[in-house]
Amino acid sequence: MTDLLPASDEAALKRAFSCFPTGVVAVCRRTSDGEDVGMSASSFATVSLDPPLVSVCVRDGSTTWPRLTTAERLGVSVFAGHQGEICRRLAGPPEQRFDSVKRFVTESGALMISGAAAHLDCSVLQEIPAGDHHVVLLRIHALRSDPSVEPLVFHASTFRALEARRTQS
Questions:
Q1: Three-state SS sequence of the chain
Q2: Contacts of 12 (CB under 8 A, 6+ apart)
Q3: What is the dihedral of CA 129, 97, 37, 29, to 10 degrees?
Q4: Which positions fall inside the Flavin reductase like domain (predicted)?
Q5: Among residues 2, 76, 86, 121, which one has the fewest Cβ atoms lying within 10 Å of its Cβ?
């Protein structure tokens, strides 16, 4: 049996977390004065069908989240496999996040990234403190999706592609 490392070893913890592949989303809004605000998040999960809920985890100290949480509606865009550069840009310097990024705003005011595999028009339902993050529950009001679009997958600190495997009948 291999010796386990203590969870207080931050490098070991990050390495362990990186073993779990995740999808990556953009969480965005347009402010009343027309400014686009958004960020990438890899800690996104489905939560409930009734009511329709998803969650995203936001790091304490984020300078972007306080500018998003006040929105009446947020756009959650599930990045497509070809959108790795956009994902990186939305994690970079705020003043350059939307450079050359095609996007649109819904009637409700949610900002979405064009070409994503799915778009969710959401509102913040609840924020739950959890260690050095907040778990944010988002209620979905409207959506569209295309499961035939390959998703962007984050695993071991890099973007990867999924492989469809056929089972023998």
A1: CCCCCCCCCHHHHHHHHCCCCEECEEEEEECCCCCEEEEEECCEEEEECCCCEEEEEEECCCCCHHHHCCCCCEEEEECECCCHHHHHHHCCCHHHCCCCCCEEECCCCEEEECCCCEEEEEEEEEEEEECCEEEEEEEEEEEEECCCCCECEEECCEEECCCCCCCCC
A2: 5, 6
A3: -100
A4: 17-161
A5: 2
Amino acid at 101: V
**Apex CA 120: angle with CA 118 and CA 125, to 5°?**
150
User: What digits encode the pLDDT tens for the residues 24-49?
Assistant: 999 999 998 999 999 999 889 999 99
Q: How far apart are CA 111 and CA 34, in angstroms?
A: 11
Side-chain half-sphere CA neighbours of 13 within 13 A: 5
The pLDDT tens digits for 58-99 are 999 999 999 999 999 999 999 999 999 999 999 999 889 999
